[in-house]
Fold each of these.
Amino acid sequence: FVPVVSAESRPQETVVLLHGILNRPFVMTKIQRGLEKNGFRVLNWGYQSTEKTIEEYTADLKTFVESQKLTHPVHFVGFSLGSIIARNYLSTTPPPQLGRFVQIAPPNHGSERVSALSQFKTVRWILGDKAFEQMKPNSAFLQSMGLPPCAIGIIVGGRGDGKGYSDSLAGDDDGTVSLNSSRLEGAKDFAQVPSTHTLLLAQDKTVDLVVAFLKNGTFRFNSSAEVLK
């Protein structure tokens, strides 16, 4: 359980939320409400996820953040592709008031599902040939991406049985991204919530973990999810 802290008891810190591919900001609503109840100001940023490269989305995010003229710490929470856009932004041109960063189901090393789906012309038409293609396993883009200069917490899904939801992914997975792909050297904490990929955003445990990390820089005081090394 994460105790609720009123907005009056702390300087109002800001959290920027980023959804994933083929999503809209509303998918982050549960997390937004949990953060707002704990005194954070939330900016639920939306973008057209199938039209541009990750570098172009990064530039758009930078423009958006700078337009807010923030003076208190600003944290970032990204889901799936959104976590990669945020990581690229924070590792290249981080805001001076940067706080903490939570990645939810991040394909930090790409997803084998992208390689499989990209063989189909219809899928490429729906998802685009830009950011989607950059998410292939260990693409040159992903291999060149740096590490943001802040505390990073990673939340993943999966079954917790070492096998996961998809037979086509090695080890445990959430049906879209494997745990091994989500791992990032230098991350401070890594927690698992039993769930498939998109449904991670609907889990109370996910919200609790996000709030815990942004407030305390760790998942470990929260016992509702398994914290992994």
Amino acid sequence: MKTDDLIRAVVADNASVKAPISRTVWLALGAGLVLAAAHFYSLLGVRSDFAFAITHDPRFMFKFVFTLGIAIPAALLVLRLARPDGAAGWTKWLLMIPPLLLAAAVALEMRAVPADHWAVSAFGSMPVACMKYIPILSLAPFVAILFALRQGAPSNPMAAGAAAGLLSGAIGAGLYATFCVDDSPMFLAIWYVAGITIVSALGALVGSRLLKW
């Protein structure tokens, strides 16, 4: 084979190699975030007192501490489980932090709020909307991340799908939190957690079938 022919063959081989799965996942996540944000603004938009709530209500800010606290380790978990040798490893311990913080926030609110107001805090004003919009806003990143995982080789399709659902659910919950006026940690512990759990369960179900290889 001539040198020029060899160079052309090497270039062709390199061009056919798939991109690293980590880059594929990050690109899919970015695309899913953009689409989810656009969907959010077309449906809801941020609450009218958003700027005031950021600076004056720690409970409002805690909603983002909680959702980001889930989303960041869930993203790392998706990256690990996308590979055939992937395992949850130390990332599973990071996922323990948000529930512990939420439990502490609920305990503090229960100490500060009279017992006869607990039900009002827990049910809030829009529990049905919360359960509806978190899965809806999770849809774009969910589809994008599953597509990325299809380009990998997860050895545990159910776990990979559940991680994709957990990440997507946290994204949807974080977006919805900018609209939601129910800032009580009790409300968060029931309705936000339920919405994220629904998307995670859906991810496990879909992943167990779609990500098999």
